[in-house]
User: What shape does this take?
Amino acid sequence: MQTTRKHGVFLVGVAVWNLITWGMFTKNLYAAQAAGEDRPTGYWVAHSVLIVANLVLAGVFGSWGAKVLRSRS
Assistant: This one.
């Protein structure tokens, strides 16, 4: 598949979106835990794993998008 500039822009956009949304979710999750919200340990573990996985995906998509944009300039 041939990648174009719009693919690169899309990938960088997805990466930025992931960083913003999962960053806000991290802040809210931390605030809930700090406030003493009573949840099972599995809840905190599962959501922490989701945060890490999606931030890693943001890094992968961002670097892939940047690579596409550099190669198409």
User: Anything to note?
Assistant: Residues 5-71 form one domain. The two ends are 18 Å apart (CA to CA). The chain has a mean pLDDT of 94. The helical segments are 5-34, 41-71.
